[in-house]
Amino acid sequence: MNSEDINAIKKLLSVPQKIVIVPHKNPDGDAIGSTLALWHYLQNKGQQATVISPNDYPKFLKWMPGNEYILNYEKENRQAKRKLNEASIIFTLDFNHLGRVGQLEEPLENSNAEFIMIDHHQEPSDYANITYSDVTMSSTCEMVYNFIESLGDTSDITTEIANCLYTGIMTDTGSFAFPPTTSRTHRIVANLIDKGAENSKIHNEVFNTNTPSRLHLLGCALKNLVILEEFNTVYITLSQEELDSNDFKKGDTEGFVNYGLTLNEIVFAVIFIENKEEGIIKISFRSEGDFLVNEFASSHFSGGGHNNAAGGRSNLSMQDTVSRFKSLLKNYKNKLNP
Fold first, then answer.
1. Which secondary structure element, helix H or strand E, spans residue 218, and what is its range?
2. Per residue in 125-182, pLDDT tens?
3. Are 228 and 301 in contact (CB under 8 A)?
4. What are phi and psi of 186, to 5 degrees?
5. Homologous superfamily of 3-207 in CATH?
6. Where does residue 262 rank: exposed (0-12), middle (13-18), buried (19+ CB within 10 A)?
7. Domain-wise residue ranges, the chain
8. Which residues have CB under 8 Å from 246's CB, separation 6+?
9. Whole-angstrom Cα distance, residue 104 to residue 99?
10. Among the four residues 37, 47, 116, 252, which has the most C-beta atoms within 10 Å?
């Protein structure tokens, strides 16, 4: 963060404020971890803060300290709207376009609050009064740590804040395996452990709480895996019927797409998941090396994200979506080399 923005934020927070903190729709570990960490920090500084999530999120994230105070905009709409109307400052975390918040988009657009964005995705829009954007960062949680450090308050990082930040960094780096994980990331993680982050417990809470139905769904997904050797690509499909027959719960397919990249010579992995309620096929893209899935997603599937991890969507049927995807690969053959 530059000194001008730091000074502006210090001035804003020097007096009592009514603050709302918002993650993106279908929030993941980085989104929930960063918003709750910031919520704890602001509460401890004497600010009146509220986290409003656009919708529900996976059960394996609901152990985090402060989770019980998050308002679900879909289920607690009246209370959430009141908080938004009262807000003097709105922090938006882990997204950079208001289109990423579902039904929250309109009330945010109509708000007169000061907006502060903290995010690590590419091509940020300009809705915020103060924008802290850095695409080189491993996670928004790492950025929230930097935010607290810039304000001179690392000594105020509590065990609760440390647990939330560790969770987001761990999940968004693939347990510290993805390329944006730097030596600085590891030093921050070490500091968080020193502050009380329970790394072993966090790993168990996030990764070792499977249900039999989720493991059955994983088996179904892997059975559906198709290898396109010519393009060093794999894809997985999951129909609504397959989700329903395996008692699908939000978050159950988290990480499924990554299994494709464990295969030798595979550069590009994709999962197509049918969502009949929304009338779309949700798509997750992952890659190794220099193949930029964010560009692929934005060019063909109304999506975006990071260089090696992105998302998109299709309004076509599953069959037509997969056919379109396969037809596109010939245009990228030279870029899909291991």
1. helix 212-223
2. 999 999 999 999 999 999 999 999 999 999 999 999 999 999 999 999 999 999 899 9
3. no
4. -65, -35
5. inorganic pyrophosphatase (n-terminal core) (3.90.1640.10)
6. exposed
7. 3-207, 212-335
8. 213, 214, 216, 217, 220, 252
9. 9
10. 37
